[in-house]
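This entry is set out below.
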Amino acid sequence: MTKDPLLTVFSLAQESEEQAGLQLRAAQSELQKQESQLQALNQYRLDYMQQLKDKSNGQVSITFYQQFHKFIKQIDDAISQQIRAVSQAEEVWAHRQQHWLEQQRKRKSVEQLLEKKARTAEMKQTRLEQKLSDEFTMQQCNRRQAR
């Protein structure tokens, strides 16, 4: 008996769904990494601001303030860049999630077709068995009457 081409399609659909799932998990991991880096930068900025607040109780030179503001500007720039990286990672994650959902939908469609085909074959087989049983019973009945 030849292999049903629908089984090949199902196998390919499963494979595609698995690959899409792996890509989705990788995108989720990357998103978490980017969010963690953003959180670290924000915490670093807060810590640095607290240091300035602690030092400002005493006298601080203008040079120190200038360096401080320059450094805070660099941190703010890094935070802005990281916000863009998080946004980009979110877009990749959303795209891959949609792709995974589409692959899942395709696999389920093929699976439903296979189930329907199996039910149809089973009904056909049941009808055939019933027909054979009926014919056998009829033949036995005819033999008894012929005796």
About this structure: Helices lie at 5-55, 62-146.
